[in-house]
Amino acid sequence: MNKIFIQFLIIMSMLAQTSVNAQSNPFFAKYKTPHETPPFDKIKIEHYVPAFEKGMAEHQSDIDKIVNNQAAPTFQNTIEAMEYAGVVLDKVSNVFFNLLSSESNDEMMQISQELSPKLSEHSNNISLNEKLFKKIKAVYDNRHTSGLNTEQIRLTEKVFQGFENSGANLSDKDKETYRKLSMELSKRTLDFGQNNLKETNKYSKLITDEADLAGLPESIIDAARTKAKSKDKEGWMFDLSAPSYFGLMKYSSIRPLRKELYMAYNTKNVMGGEFDNQENVREIVKLRLEIAKLLGYNNYAAYALKYRMAKNEASVYELLNDLAEAYMPVAKNEVKDVQKFATEMEGKSIDIQPWDWAFYSDKLKDARFDLNDEMTRPYFELENVKKGVFGLATDLYGLQFKQNKNIPVYHPEVEAFDVLGENGEFVAVLFTDFHPRDGKRSGAWMTSYKGQFKKDGKDSRPHVSIVMNFTRPTETKPALLTFDEVNTFLHEFGHALHGMLAKTTYKSLSGTSVYRDFVELPSQIMENWLVEKEYLDKFAYHYQTGDKIPAELVQKIIDAANYNVGYATLRQLSFGYLDMAWHSLTEIGEVDTRTFEQEAMQPVQLLPIVPEACMSTAFSHIFAGGYAAGYYSYKWAEVLDADAFSLFKKNGIFDKGTARSFKENILEKGNTDDPMKLYINFKGSEPTVEALLKRTGVYQ
Questions:
Q1: What is the Cα 553 distance to its own chain's centre?
Q2: Number of folded domains that form the chain
Q3: What is the pLDDT of residues 332-370, one digit of tens each?
Q4: pTM
Q5: How far is the CA of 301 from the CAs of 163, 579, 599, 637, in angstroms?
Q6: Which residue among 24, 281, 364, 650 sits deepest, i.e. has the most Cβ atoms within 10 Å of its Cβ?
Q7: How many whole angstroms from its chain centre is CA 371?
Q8: Which residues contact 5 (CB under 8 A, 6 or more apart)?
Q9: Where are the beta strands (DSSP E) in 367-511?
Q10: What contacts 483, CB < 8 A, 6 or more positions away?
């Protein structure tokens, strides 16, 4: 058989295989699943790259049709047409990048690295298209005189601002520079996140001597034993996942062990080796700064804050400084109290180090309020907590949650729910994913597989997911959550409500697609209910006896709600100061990551500095997520949520009228109007800091 014929057969075989792949690729057809959710059971690794390539090609074709349209630019043939472009790319991106965070593996990481420059180039080809921008600008310039409604004007402004912020006004030479910078930035942020995940997964501590378990409660010991068995080890295994790490830090009476875990957790990606992120941090900051300067801004913070509620650096620092001033005296007294208690407890002088704080502060809390996590855990069994969290949405908004086992999920632990409205109408799909595992990044987050939008008279409802890393069940007990884990559940569920209750026309303005410093209001307000007895009585039942959580225990939770609030506030502020320090730079040389960080956080530093420790190299929120020059948002939104909840406190925490107003003015509206206007429509006035200070006991 000659070589030419063999080559012909090979080519024909490849073409046939490509055809089969194209026909069987689930991203290329309408999903035949309940509510057209992603068919996770049919999606395979080999489907992603062809889907991305086809998706980018089709998206570019959609854009070309808009650009080549000879009719005068209108909202419908330009802005709206762009909104509905790129269907396949949207489908595959939503699945791939969500699973890259929640169910990743080496193959997906490799694909992401290969795709990153291609996706950046594709995005740049659109945002730097001069003819397209001219059409957008024409619609933008006439937005107030062409009969557009408020939402259409808002979308036009968002599209125009997005193009402007992506270099559309640059010269041809500067556009090429922007392309290179943005592609490299995309790669660096991806590398940062993957390094962090790999470094986190790399560490484990196997304890084989039972004496080293001193101080640990049964729930933590059981979880460590279960984890060890899952790795075919004898003993008790601890790692850097939240339940494992924080459980040991809070309860272990073995100080050297606490220090060892602390150092492992707080020196991630900074000790050299293949997963070191120091260069990534410097390069990400440098690239962001160069992009900001290219676009005419003095630093990245000025660039990022232009279209947020804060507007500028001065407003952010005013918030951080005001809160630091208010809470610093409280925090210093709290540290003194813990220091004194530790000395009394040990019978000798103890210099409180960072690896001591969780342990001694929890012991003092227990002594002062007779309250710790092990007392509340039995009343926070995960299934009951789910009923309580879902039930809050029922009480406030009339929502019902029905598990739908016909909806495919991406992991056996994931559950899918049909979310129904007051009249039984379909509202959304909610996926829940509660426990840590290899391949899932740390932390907790809400995301969407499909956003809400309206088209051709149909309201296309969203598919929302909440992903967390909560305490697992053990061989002898169900998943019993800590108070903080329940709080986190409520927080992420608040984001989910923002996505699920959306009622906008355009997906780009739907749900959580709002200003970064407004997006935490719907999530943080949910946390307020957790210290309300009337709410806890609805779901906090002992997992064995079924007894309702005792009134005296609820009162202890309420009494302890502001325990160490000063320390917690300053810790959160330190992250905001660090974020702003990196992104307020006007130039960056050979900066030492640790030294820079220590200087940035110094104004609110309460405990001794650990020279080897470094948060920046694992600070995924700002270096691999969307919170660059935006971490202050949590405190900004805390002012909003305290002010907003004060209306519920005034009218009743389950008041239907107040809930309806919050739903209609905040949750449903997304980014269809200025956030301060939306807030005033709900509250009747602008927020003030007094409600937050009152809630935390700083201001009477």
A1: 31
A2: 3
A3: 999 999 999 999 999 999 999 999 999 999 999 999 999
A4: 0.93
A5: 18, 9, 18, 18
A6: 281
A7: 30
A8: none
A9: 400-403, 415-420, 426-433, 445-450, 453-455, 458-460, 463-467
A10: 373, 376, 380, 530, 557
In a domain, 381, yes or no: yes
Mean pLDDT computed over 67-79: 98
Neighbours of 190 (CB within 10 A): 19
Q: Are residues 401 and 499 in the same domain?
A: yes
Residue 555 belongs to some domain of the structure: yes
Cα–Cα separations (whole angstroms), residue 151 to 79, 84, 651: 12, 16, 31
Is residue 516 within 8 A of residue 633, CB to CB? The reply is: yes
User: The tokens 């009747």 sit on which residue?
Assistant: 684
Residue 21 — pLDDT band, cuts 50, 70, 90? low
SS3 content of the chain, % helix, strand, coil (to 5): 60, 5, 35
Helix intervals (H) in 562-668: 565-583, 593-601, 620-623, 633-651, 656-662
Residues 213-266: tens digit of each pLDDT: 999 999 999 999 999 999 999 999 999 999 999 999 999 999 999 999 999 999
The structure tokens listed for 384 are 């009951």
Does 136 reside within a domain? yes
Q: Is 374 a catalytic residue?
A: no
Helix axes 565-583, 593-601, angle to 10 degrees: 130
Domain limits at 28? 3-127+129-169
Q: Are residues 97 and 43 in the same domain?
A: yes
Query: Residue 638 and residue 174: Cα distance in Å, rounded?
Result: 40
Position 15 pLDDT exceeds 70? no
For the cut 80, the answer to whether the pLDDT of residue 18 exceeds it is: no
Residue 26 lies in a domain: yes
The Cα–Cα gap between 163 and 138 comes to 13
CATH of the domain at 34: 1.10.1370.40
The predicted-structure confidence for 93-143, as pLDDT tens digits, reads as follows 999 999 999 999 999 999 999 999 999 999 999 999 999 999 999 999 999
- Selecting among 83, 485, 492, 532, the annotated active-site residue is 492
Q: How many CB atoms lie within 10 A of CB 686?
A: 10
312: left (phi over 0), alpha (psi -120 to 50) or beta: beta
Rounded distance between C-alpha atoms, residue 87 and residue 550, angstroms:
53
- pLDDT > 90? residue 590: no
144: Cα separation from own chain's centroid? 35
**Are 82 and 154 members of one domain?**
yes
Tens-place pLDDT, residues 297-321: 999 999 999 999 999 999 999 999 9
Q: What is the pLDDT of residue 23?
A: 62
Task: Identify which of 595, 615, 607, 605 has the alpha carbon closest to the alpha carbon of residue 573.
Answer: 605
Q: CA 677 → CA 665, 669, 671, 681, 682, distances in Å?
A: 9, 11, 11, 6, 9
Which among 362, 421, 353 has a CA at the least distance from the CA of 660?
A: 421
At a CB cut-off of 8 Å and minimum separation 6, what does 296 contact?
Answer: none
Structure tokens at 302: 């000025």
